[in-house]
Amino acid sequence: MYELFFHLVFKRMDPERAHHMAVRWIRLTAAVPVLRTFVAALLAPRHKELRTEALGLRMHGPFGLAAGFDKNAVAIDGMAMLGFDHVEIGTVTGEPQPGNPKKRLFRLVPDRALINRMGFNNEGSAAVARRLNERVPVFRTVVGVNIGKTKVVPEAEAVADYVKSTERLARHADYLVVNVSSPNTPGLRNLQATEALRPLLTAVREAADRTVTDRRVPLLVKIAPDLADEDVDAVADLAVELALDGIIATNTTIAREGLGLTADPKLVAETGGLSGAPLKERSLEVLRRLYARVGDRLVLVGVGGIENAEDAWQRILAGATLVQGYSAFIYEGPFYARAVHKGLAARLKASPYATLAEAVGADTRKATA
Ligand SMILES: Cc1cc2nc3c(=O)[nH]c(=O)nc-3n(C[C@H](O)[C@H](O)[C@H](O)COP(=O)(O)O)c2cc1C
C-alpha cells in the first residue's frame, strides 16, 4: 500500500518537498487526539519483552529515529505516534543557518539509498531550545538532542559553538549527542581526531554539568563510517577515558560502495553523505569493532542501513543497546517501526536469550572468545 503511494506520489516529488509534506501530515495527525490514539494503537503496539533501559532512561523498546529527520524538534510526538521509542532531534547548531543550496537531497531508489548534502539546515539552538521548553509532551518518549557546528564558525572556535548549544539545550535533552561526523560541514569530521575531540567533549561535558544540576545528562558522540579502524579504536578509548555514556555508529558515508542498481551515474556522483542499504555492512563492522573494544562500558547505538527487524537484531547481537533508522523510513513508510518491533520480539522469543539486554553483543562476544 505505502509502496504504491511512494511510487505514485512521493517518488514524483522533489525529495525535500516530500519530506516537508510527510512531516506536516504527521504533525497534523498527532495534533488530533482521536486520530493520534488510533494511529499509535495501530503503529506503536507495545511489546513488553522489548522494554529497554539505557543511559539511565526507560524506553518502550530499543528502536529510535536517527538525527536529521526532525532537525527543529517539530514532530517529536508524531514520530513517537509512529512507534519510534526515542527521537533524536537535530542536528542543531549554535546559530540558525539555511544549509546548502537546493537541490541537496537525492533518492537512489533501486539501491534503497539516499544522498544528502543538507548542511545542517536548522533554526539554531535558541529557537529549538524555546520550542522544547514550550513543548507539552503527548507521548512519553525519550528525546535525544544532537548538536553540531555552525558553518560560519571557524574550526578553531568550534568548541565555543558546541558549548553555546549545550548551555541552551542540555536541560531539554534526555541525552545529548556531539555530532562530529557529518560530511556536509567543511572541516567538521576533523573534530573526530582525538586531539580535537578531547577538548571538545570535555567542554561539552562541563557545560552540561554546569547548566543541568539536578541530573547528569548522558553524553554520546556520533562517528563516521569512513574512519580508519585505528581511529575508531582511538575514539572508543577516548570515550571510555572521558567517561562518556555512549557512541552512535554511524553517520552517512562519503564512499560510494554498494551502489550497484542505480543506473543514473549523475545521481551516484552527487556530493554528500550516502545512507540506507549500502551503508549497512560498514556500519555493522564499525559497531562490532566498538563492542569488541569497549564491551558494556559504553552504550552503543547502531545506525546505518537498518531496513528491517533482521538488521536491527544483527546490530543488537553485534553490540548495540539501541538502534536507529532514517532512510528506510522513507522507503518503508509508516509501518517501518511496527515491523521492526514485531520482528525483534519474534527473534528474541526464538533466541536463547531471556532478555534483549542478554542478547546485546552476544555474537561479538562469541567471535572474540
Ligand atoms: C537527509 C538526511 C539528513 C541527515 N541529517 C543528519 C543530521 O543532521 N545529523 C546527524 O547526526 N545525522 C544526520 N543524518 C544521518 C542519519 O542520522 C543516520 O546516521 C544515517 O542516515 C544512517 O542511517 P540510515 O541508513 O538509517 O539512514 C541524516 C541523514 C539523512 C538521510
Automatic annotation (TrEMBL):
Q: For this UniProt entry, what's an example GO CC term?
A: cytoplasm
| Gene Ontology biological process terms, A to Z | 'de novo' pyrimidine nucleobase biosynthetic process; 'de novo' UMP biosynthetic process
Its localization reads:
Cell membrane
Q: Which GO terms describe its molecular function?
A: dihydroorotate dehydrogenase (quinone) activity
What does this protein's record comment on cofactor binding? Binds 1 FMN per subunit.
Assembly notes:
Monomer.
Q: What is the protein name for this chain? A: Dihydroorotate dehydrogenase (quinone)
